[in-house]
Design goal:
The chain is built from 13 helices and 28 strands. It is an alpha/beta fold. The protein has three domains: about 210 residues, 3-Layer(bba) Sandwich (FAD/NAD(P)-binding domain), CATH 3.50.50.60; about 130 residues, FAD/NAD(P)-binding domain; about 160 residues, no CATH class. The strands form seven sheets. Strands 1, 2, 3, 4, 5, 6 and 19 form a seven-stranded mixed β-sheet that branches.
Length: about 525
């Protein structure tokens, strides 16, 4: 039997973070993961993270994963892959399957960071080939460079459904529609806006009633639902698709904790069956900890902080860290975690309908129901005295935990309030240089540079662009509105790429000045014939 000071089950963001902190305190740490590659969901996440500097905001998920693996290796963490932990017992012993062999391992403390599994919903034809989970789609695209399908319908408008829909389009798939039984979009509005301005419609208060096809998916039928989420006869709509992608929530993979005898609770707000834990992640059994989605579904940024907290707590439990040093470190991490637990999307706000932002501004109903801001919203949220020349326009209207735009601006043009969930504002006393750092750094792609005085009768709009092939200077294409409607011909007058932009290309298009505050996306010439 192999022995370690600490065993961590799960090599995802929380598990690796926990292992690193514990190993830094001097523990011998082993991490077991059933997958062939470490990093959990991080290497599927090609988008930029939200939060602040301490949360690794504006850094793409796979790069965060690379950093964690490098740190784990540097401090001597042993990571065992293709290692399935099939049992855990009260004396902190686990049973691990590696290949055809079963091994027993024992530790003085254990951290369970097994994450969560995708939920599915059933409907007529849901077992046909072509019905997949959003996580499976991410795996195919971002790990193996395989298109999940050509024409895809997404079920679910939470952050997972929104993010994966955008990544499907980046992979060259056509997203036909996003469908959700809820009457409002569940994820960040900035994520929804990225999709809406590409011309993808949202069907809220709708659900899938039938998947069509004899041997695989060839079409899908959706229907409107009533207040009890029951399909309304006569409201059916048909779409020709070859793939149905489901993003309908996650469930904590807490079976090992239950097997070991940890006290459990059924908490729908945290995703289902979760362990009872204290503020440091320790379960009802001393020396057994839980971190990340296994103790409650949250974003990866929160999971990494919780993992670090559990790693430090395990080190203190085993005497490798003094209580004073533990408390000092945990207090700092608690502040960072609490900053993510504020605003409209805080864990305690699930299910709540907000009518006003923290600043007292009426929430955009168009954003919640259609995925884009209307002109009245823009007038309410963009209060600035127009100056001659280029200036930023910020279309971030929800209290989400994010502030890299403030740090990115070298001229301090953008200000965030006391919390990272405050809405960003333009400082009227600062002068924009047009450097574009705010545009590139915005994780929600919600900042644009506008110059209504570019030349007589025309304005320039600089927007973030993350599709291939990139436009080239001189190209002619179509300007699209926030809702994805064609506005007319747009000419590309500048294309900028830089290491500091981290794979976000800044594309500047020339449009009639009347479109300066309405044009928000560019479709290439080859795509214009499709409109």
């Amino acid at each position: 039997m192999k022995r370690y000071d600490l065993i961590v089950v799960g090599a995802g963001p929380s598990g690796l973070s926990a292992a690193i902190e514990a190993a830094r305190c001097g523990l011998t740490v082993a991490v077991f993961d059933e997958n062939a590659k470490p990093g959990g969901q991080l290497f599927k996440q090609i988008h930029k993270f939200f939060g602040s500097k301490e949360h690794q905001a504006k850094i793409r998920g796979y790069k965060i994963g690379e950093t964690l693996l490098s740190e784990a290796d540097a401090v001597g963490v042993k990571v065992f892959l293709n290692a399935t932990v099939s049992g855990m017992y009260m004396d902190k012993e686990i049973l691990v399957r590696r290949g055809d062999a079963m091994e027993h391992c024992k530790a003085d403390a254990i951290i369970i960071a097994t994450g969560a599994s995708e939920n599915m919903v059933t409907f007529d034809g849901w077992t046909l080939p072509g019905v997949i989970g959003a996580g499976a789609a991410q795996t195919m695209m971002n790990l193996y460079s395989i298109q999940p399908g050509q024409r895809v319908l997404m079920l679910g408008s939470g952050n997972v459904g929104l993010v994966v829909s955008f990544q499907l389009m980046q992979a060259g798939c056509e997203v036909i529609a996003l469908v959700d039984a809820s009457p409002r979009i569940g994820g960040y509005g900035v994520h929804a806006s990225k999709i809406a301005r590409c011309g993808v419609p949202f069907y809220l208060s709708h659900t899938i009633t039938k998947a069509e096809g004899p041997d695989c998916i060839t079409g899908v039928e959706i229907s409107q639902v009533d207040d009890h989420f029951t399909p309304i006869p006569g409201t059916q709509k048909h779409f020709d698709v070859d793939t149905i992608c489901m993003a309908v929530g996650l469930s904590p993979m807490s079976q090992l904790l239950k097997m070991a005898g940890c006290s459990m609770i059924d908490d729908p707000r945290r995703g289902g069956q979760v362990p009872l834990v204290d503020e440091n992640g320790e379960t009802s059994i001393p020396g057994i900890f839980a971190a990340g989605d296994v103790s409650g579904i949250e974003e990866a940024s929160s999971a990494m902080i919780e993992g670090r907290m559990s790693g430090l707590s395990a080190a203190a439990y085993l005497g490798f860290l003094s209580e004073k040093d533990k408390d000092s470190s945990l207090n700092e991490l608690e502040v960072a975690l609490n900053s993510l637990h504020q605003g409209m999307f805080a864990p305690g706000s699930k299910g709540k309908a907000f009518t006003k932002t923290d600043e007292g501004i009426a929430v955009s109903q168009s954003l919640l129901k259609k995925g884009y801001l209307d002109e009245a919203d823009i007038a309410r949220f963009n209060h600035f005295d127009k100056k001659s020349g280029v200036h930023p326009v910020i279309e971030c209207t929800q209290n989400i935990p994010c502030n890299p735009c403030q740090d990115a601006c070298p001229k301090d043009c953008i200000k965030i309030g006391k919390t990272i969930t405050a809405l960003p504002r333009i400082d009227a006393d600062s002068t924009c240089t047009g450097c574009g750092m705010c545009v590139a750094s915005c994780s929600g792609q919600a900042i644009f540079l506008v110059d209504e005085d570019y030349e007589p009768g025309y304005a320039s709009i600089t927007l973030p662009y993350e599709f291939l092939p990139r436009p080239q200077k001189g190209d002619l294409g179509t300007a699209l509105s926030r809702s994805g409607q064609p506005l007319g011909v747009a000419e590309i007058i500048d294309v900028r790429s830089a290491k500091a932009f981290d794979h976000t290309t800044l594309v500047t298009m020339k449009v009639p000045v009347a479109q300066a505050m309405t044009a928000r996306f560019y479709k290439r010439e080859a795509q214009r014939a499709e409109l």
